[in-house]
Amino acid sequence: MTTFTSLGVPESFAAALEKRGITVPTEIQAAFIPAACAGENLIGTAPTGTGKTLAYLLPLLTRIDPAERTAQALILAPTHELAMQIATVARELVQAAGLAFGVQALIGGANVKRQIEALKKKPAVIVGSAPRIAEMHRLGKLKLAGVKLLVLDEFDHLFGKQQLDEVRAVVRLLPPERQALLLSATAGTAAVRMAESLFAPRLIRAESTNGGYENYYHIVSFRDKIKAVQKLTRRLPVRRGLVFVGRSFDAAHALEKLRYEGIKAVALLGQERRDQRRAALDAIRAGRAELLISTDLAARGLDIENVDYVIHLDLPEDVRTYRHRAGRTARAGKAGAVISLVDEKEMDKLKALAARMEIELSRLPRA
């Protein structure tokens, strides 16, 4: 049986993972870790919830030399929440393994003076957004000449129109001989080609999924969809549910209506302040809220444990979006369910999505 140590992961990290109940590598980890440890430039694609964060963090942390008092690894993420999540996981691994180097998150919206003070401690691992990292470098507070490993998490979004120029600007600040690791669950052909042109990486694709979620649909008139969410939350054993909105529904309006009906709900919206978004995530993770209402971009890459239901208030636009949303549940081998709320006119679109994904749809059983 493949183990983390057989992949080249030091015993200290393997022991730290075992304490968290992680003993067997996933498909993407088994394929990605040895190649990353060997210094290759890589693209890794795998479904959500299959352990991509550990697939790059373990080789990255293994490469850190605590004696070098400088930034040695840089991780870029497309959203502030994902960057903070990655930094938290990295710190926990470092502490559990008993290692003596720092991990620092650098994101926009956070206090600049505090981040500058934190950089005085010479953290070895920097996680954050490209604009803030470029700003700290421009101010002379962050030196990048010692970076030997670059990670682009959810790289297809980092290569989108809004962030590509900023990412390229940061890459130009790094030593040319640095290693590059790029990972995503939903990278299309265009994103992969862009990655190949920038870094000449080898592509590693893991196709296995958790397979632990059921796909249901529930027919309801468009005007009654929010009411249906309220009824389903009371009827089903929802401990931690995610409700995705798209173009048709206003998330703030949905939140207001659900709260009026007595549902403990919070929202994750891109236009809110960072502290408000963090409070929403803390509430759903701590069990103080039953539902988290979110747009697709806001929830990009987030790992929220024990999400048992994903509800599409707005039907996903395409296969990639469906898979991204569905991947928030049934993570790490646990069970879950995806429920699409559709009116009669939307059924053909949902059936077409299901056919392209080769999944079986079932009508949600009545109580």
TrEMBL record:
Q: Which SMART domains would you find in this protein's record?
A: DEXDc (SM00487), HELICc (SM00490)
Gene Ontology annotations of biological process type: response to cold
Task: Give me the segments passing through the membrane.
Answer: none
Q: Which Pfam families match?
A: DEAD, Helicase_C
Q: What is this protein called?
A: DEAD/DEAH box helicase
Question: Motif Q motif: which ranges?
Answer: 2-30
Q: Which residue range or ranges hold the Helicase C-terminal domain?
A: 221-367
* Cellular compartments per GO CC: cytosol; ribosome
What are the record keywords, sorted? ATP-binding, Helicase, Hydrolase, Nucleotide-binding
Every copy of the Helicase ATP-binding domain together lies at: 33-205
DEAD-box RNA helicase Q domain: residues covered: 2-30
* SUPFAM superfamilies linked to this entry: P-loop containing nucleoside triphosphate hydrolases
Q: Which GO terms describe its molecular function?
A: ATP binding; hydrolase activity; RNA helicase activity; RNA strand annealing activity
